[in-house]
Design brief:
The complex is a heterodimer of chains A (223) and B (443).
Chain A: E1 2-6, H1 10-22, E2 26-30, H2 33-42, E3 47-51, H3 59-68, E4 75-79, H4 84-92, E5 97-100, H5 105-116, E6 127-130, E7 133-136, E8 141-144, E9 147-149, H6 153-164, E10 170-171, H7 172-180, H8 190-202, E11 211-214, E12 218-221
Parallel strand pairs in A: 1-2, 1-3, 3-4, 4-5
Antiparallel strand pairs in A: 6-7, 7-8, 8-9, 10-12, 11-12
Helix pairs in contact in A: 2-3, 6-7
Chain B: H1 2-10, H2 12-58, H3 64-76, E1 83-89, E2 92-95, E3 106-109, E4 122-129, E5 132-139, H4 141-191, H5 208-258, H6 265-292, E6 301-304, H7 305-322, E7 326-334, E8 336-339, H8 341-358, E9 364-371, E10 373-378, H9 410-420, E11 424-429, E12 434-439
Parallel strand pairs in B: 7-9
Antiparallel strand pairs in B: 1-2, 1-5, 3-4, 4-5, 6-8, 9-10, 10-12, 11-12
Helix pairs in contact in B: 1-4, 2-4, 4-5, 5-6, 6-9, 7-8, 8-9
Classes of the chains: A alpha/beta (223), B alpha+beta (443).
Amino acid sequence: MRILVIEDDRTTGDYIANGLREEGHVVDLSRNGREGLLMAQTNDFDVLVVDRMLPDLDGLSLVRTLRAAKNLTPALFLTALGGVDDRIEGLNAGGDDYLVKPFAFGELSARLAALARRPQMRDDEAILSAGDLRMDLIRRRVTRGGVEIDLLPREFALLECLLRRKGRVQTRTMLLEAVWELSFDPQTNVVESHVSRLRGKVDKPFATELIKTVRGAGYRIEA
Amino acid sequence: MTADWRDILRSTPMRLTLRLVALFLVISLLTFAATWWLANKTLLDAAEDTLDVELDELSASGDPKGIADAVAAISNKTDPENLILRYDGTHGIVGNYDGALPGEGLREFDPDDPADHLSDRYILKSRDVPGGQLTVGESADAFDELREVFGQVLSFTLLPTVLLVLAAGLLSARRAARRLGAIEATLDRLRGGDLSARLPDLPGPADDLSRVGIGIDRLAEAQQSSTEALRQVSADIAHDLKTPIQRLAVQLAQTRDELPEGVASQALDRAEAEVAGIVSTFQSLLSIAQIEGGSPRARFQPVDLSALVTTMAELYEPAAEEGSHRLSVVVLSRSAVLGDRALLGQVIANLIENALRHTPPGSAVLLTVDGPRLTVADTGPGIPPDERDKVLRRLYRLDRSRSTPGSGLGLSLVEAVVKLHGGKLDLQENAPGLRVVITLPTT
C-alpha cells in the first residue's frame, strides 16, 4: 500500500512511518498541513493518516479541502481529543476513521488495512469460510469439519465480523464498533471475554486454532 | 392561539393595563358617586325648600277652614302631574289627589295607579297643621332627568375610555409578548447548548426590554467565548500531554522490539499498563470537561433505553461471569429517551463496571429499566450516606477502594452526562449495597 502520513510530532511520525514500512508499505511523511495537502493532491495514495492538529493547516480543513476537490482517498484521523463531538466532527469533515492518541501501532495498522481494502469481500456472499469452518449466513448455521456449532446471535455476529475480514486484524475497538455499535472505551476486557467464549465453541473442541490473538492489536482469522 | 392570548393576558403590560383600568374605574365611579350624591342632595334641598314655602303659604291662615279653602283654591287650577296638594282635615280630604300617600315627613313616593295621570315619582312633604295633615308633593322629573344625564355621561365617557385603554393595553402587550417571545426563544437555544444564539433585532423603542436583550446577548457572548476558551485549553492540554504520552508508548513498544523475548517483559507490561491507566484517567477528565463545557444537545436523538441497557448488559455478561458476578436486566416498561447514545452507553458501562469492581465475587448486579428510569443495584458494601455526595467529586475515592483499580472519575462522568441530558442522578441504599437511579427526560 502507498500511505501518506501527515504528523507534526517527529517521534510519532517516524514511529508510524517506520512501523508501516516494516509491514511492507510505501510511506511518505509530511510534517505540516499545507505540504501534506499538496502531496495528497498530487500523488495517488491508498490511504492517508492525518493528525488533527497540524501547523499551517489543521487536519480537518485538509481533509475537507480534499473532499471538496473530489479526492476520496480514505483518511484516518489521529487526534489527541477523544470526545464524541470530535469524533463526529472528524467524520463529518470527510474522515473515514478516527484514532485517539495514544494508540497502539497494531490498532493503527489494523484500521488502515480495513480502510484501504474496504470493498474486498462482497456483502451478498451467502457462505463465509476459513479452513474447515463454514458459516451459512442465510440459514444462520456454523459448522466445522461438518460438526454443527451452536452460537448465540452475538457470537455469530462476532465470528461473522472476523470471517468477513479474514486475514486482517480486527482490534477490540473495531469489534466493539462493528458488533455492538458502541464507540467507547471500556475499562474491562469485555471484548476478550466474548472472544474467549467464542473460542470455547469454535476452537477448543477442534485440533487447530482458527482465531488468533495478535499481540498489542486484536484478533485475526487466517485466510 | 388560545394559549397565545392567555399568555398575552398574563403578560406584564396587560396586567399593568388591567390594573390601571381598574384603578381608573374605581376613581371615576367614586367621583361620579360623590357628584351624584351632591347633586341629588342639592336638588332634594331645593325641593324641600319649595315644598316648605308651599306648606307655609297654605297653612298661613292657621285654622282648618282657611287651610282647606286655600288647598281647594290652588288644587283647582293645578295639574296633579306637576304638583300634588292635599289636606287630610277633620271634614275629609281636600286636594287634587285622594289616593293613598303612605309615610310621613319628607319622602319619595311612587304612585302605582297609572290611570290618575300622575307623574312617575314625587317628592312629598307632609306637615301636621291645625285640624289635620297637609301634604304637598312635587314631581321628581328633575331627579330622573339628572339620573339619565348621569347615566349618559357615564356611558359616553367611561365606557369608551375603558375600551380604548384596554385595546391599547392589549396591543402593547402583544408587541411586548412578541419581543419577550424572541428573548425566550434565544434563552431556550442557549440553554440547549447553542451558545451562538443571539437575539434578533427587536422591533420597538430602545427601552427596558431591549436593554435586557442586550444584556442577554452580552452574557451569551461571554459564555461562548469562555466555553470556546475552555475547549481550546482542553484541546491544547490534550495535544501537549498526549503527544508525549504517545512518544512514551512508542518508546516502550520499540524497547520491547529491541530486547530479546522474555527479558524485562514483565517490567514493560507494567509500564504499558501504567501508560494505559494515565491515558484512561486523562481521557475521562477531558471527556468530563468537554461534556460540562456544553456539548450541543441539538444532536440528541431518541434512544431506546431498554435496548441500550440490554446491549450493555449482554456486552458485560461474560466479563461478569468471569468474576463470578451475576448480571441481570429487568425491563418493566420501555420508553425512548432523548440523548446521545454513545454517552449514555458510556454511563451504563461505567455503572456496570463500578458495580462489578466494588462487589465481592458471587454478588448480583441488577439493572432495572422502568420507562426513562434506569436503576443499577448491587449487593456490595455500598456507599455510606455521608459520602454519597463526595463520590461524585472528581477523583474522589472511598478509602477502602484505593486498592481496587479505577480512576475515581467513573461517577463524575456519569453525573456530567446525566446533567447534560437534563436528567437526575440519585445514589440510594440497597440494604445491602448501592442503588444508582438515573432518570432521563423522555422524547
